[in-house]
Amino acid sequence: MRRLVVIGGGISGLAAARAAADRAAEVPGGLDVVVLERDADVGGKVRTAREDGWLVEEGPTGFLDNEPALDRLIAAAGLERRPADEAAAHRYLVRGGTMREIAAHPVRFVRSGILGPLGLLRIALEPVIPGRDHDTGDESVWQFARRRLGRQAADRLIAPMVLGVFAGDAKRLSLPASFPKMAQMESEHGSLVRALIARRRAAKSSGQTVGGPAGPAGWLTSFDGGLAALPRALARTPGLRVETGVTAQAVRPRAGGGFVVEREPGPALEADAVVLAGEPWAMAPLVQDADRELARLLGGIDCPPVTVVALGWRREQAPGVPRGFGVLIPRGEGYRILGCLWDSFIFPGRAPEGHVLVRAMLGGAVDREVGSWDEGRAIEQTRADLARLLGVTAEPVFARVARWPRAIPQYEIGHRERVAAIERRAAAMPGLFVAGNALDGIAFGKAAARGVAMGEAAARFVIEGRVV
Ligand SMILES: Cc1cc2nc3c(=O)[nH]c(=O)nc-3n(C[C@H](O)[C@H](O)[C@H](O)COP(=O)(O)OP(=O)(O)OC[C@H]3O[C@@H](n4cnc5c(N)ncnc54)[C@H](O)[C@@H]3O)c2cc1C
């Protein structure tokens, strides 16, 4: 029997394992698919906690329903999706100390006061600003936004959006690596506005709707039991062997082909193919002996800390929490929280009847010190910020903190070249495949899609004896 070892039991690794297991019947003699997961449970960053009627996502909130590979995984796992409530369409931003709704309607957006007259005028000029091609060269997200939309929009709208997605610094992240669709819109249409108009027209003529709660690109979605339902269901796939509490220690290519995977506890495993699906900093040491340059490239991807603080109140104690998605807070407004989500409005039922659940994010690339805070300090800061922001001063009836010392990979300037180099080095070790969210998509859905692609590639490699 041939064997595939997948290292990491987050969504990337489980998607890879499931995709490979689906092709096991094509492997003469069969395919043993083994997932090694360091933690006691599968899921990685996806951790759903249930406590006294509260349902708290300690990592991702949900996924956008725009990824066909993820749709297929969900269908195969037999799970029912739970779309976010319509209330999630109301999203807010802090500007000049005041929380303002980011209205989709142009007149309401103008009136929101998020941008001043000069900032609005500059945005109106976007269609006539010459476009550039993103195939060569690199540019930070902030530079791109300033060039196309003006400085006000870059600072007040785009930088906080980058905090919301990457917990990242817009001045350090690469636009084409972090937001490839925006780069593509400019490359193809010369303007974001013209690209949006073209997209709307195309959607209208094909009878589709564009976007929904929490983003123009898709509808925020989860499951009734929270996001962890998917990794758990995938781990139960017949034919998969998932070993939790087992850490891969090294991946060594064998002279005649294939690999030896050292693990702790347990004897080393021989493998025909290996998928690396753990965090880049965790995968780097595994390949250090086999390829120091690959280890350096993986280990060089910055993953700053993020702390998630969930607080709950009785509704009458927190009347200032609006029925909506949440709020983003640009740096310079005097808050430590990067923003917060109003979970019990996004997915009703996540707080006991008559209560509200709020989740705040702290840290990221712009405030690394938060990584050293204990839970008490994180709660205290969040309470102080929410008191000022939403006027909620009452003692919370529920509190839960999740600390991620190395949370979200940052696609910094030069990331595309780094990824190309990682792909080249991995290709030089036939049978080694790199999955995970550190290369070409940090979102849950993108990680799943890359996982599926790598799992299928690994299965094809085992079937054909070469990379296909
Ligand atoms: C706070 C937070 C909020 C987020 N919010 C969203 C969101 O709302 N929407 C969204 O789309 N995305 C969000 N994301 C991103 C999303 O969570 C990730 O893209 C996705 O979960 C990554 O999955 P993964 O399997 O690639 O990695 P991980 O989930 O990090 O899994 C890697 C796994 O590998 C294991 N591992 C590592 N080393 C070893 C080893 N040597 N041996 C064995 N096992 C090992 C780890 O224990 C871990 O379980 C968020 C992330 C964070 C941290």
Overview in brief:
This protein has 468 residues and is an alpha/beta fold.
Q: What's the CATH C level of the largest domain?
A: Alpha Beta
Stated plainly, the CATH topology of the largest domain is called FAD/NAD(P)-binding domain
Associated small molecules: flavin-adenine dinucleotide
Q: Going across the major beta sheet, what is the strand order?
A: 8-7-16-17-18-15-19
Strand composition percent: 15-25%
Characterize the overall form.
Answer: globular
User: What is the correct CATH architecture of the largest domain?
Assistant: 3-Layer(bba) Sandwich
CATH superfamily of the largest domain: FAD/NAD(P)-binding domain
The oligomeric state of the chains shown is single chain
> What value does the Rg take, in angstroms?
23 Å
Number of helices: 16
What structural class is derived from the secondary structure elements?
alpha/beta
Describe the protein's architecture and organization.
- This protein is α/β, with parallel strands linked by helices and 468 residues long.
- The protein folds into 3 domains: 2-44 and 230-302 and 411-464, FAD/NAD(P)-binding domain; 48-86 and 304-404, Alpha-Beta Complex (Polyamine Oxidase, Chain A, domain 2); 116-210, protoporphyrinogen ix oxidase, domain 3 (Orthogonal Bundle), CATH 1.10.3110.
- The protein has 16 helices and 20 strands.
- The strands form 5 sheets. A 7-stranded mixed beta sheet has the order 8-7-16-17-18-15-19. It has a 5-stranded parallel beta sheet with strand order 10-2-1-14-20. The chain has a 3-stranded antiparallel beta sheet with strand order 5-9-6, with no helix packed on it.
- Strand 11 (247-253) and strand 12 (259-264) form a beta hairpin.
- Helix 1 packs parallel to helix 10 (229-235) and helix 5 (141-149) runs antiparallel to helix 6 (151-166).
- The chain is globular.
- The mean pLDDT is 95.
- Bound molecules: flavin-adenine dinucleotide.
- Flavin-adenine dinucleotide binds next to helix 1, strand 2, strand 11, strand 15 and helix 16.
- Residues 7-13, 36-39, 44-46, 59-63, 247-248, 277-279, 282, 306, 308, 404, 407-408, 436-437, 442-445, 447 line the site of flavin-adenine dinucleotide (FAD).
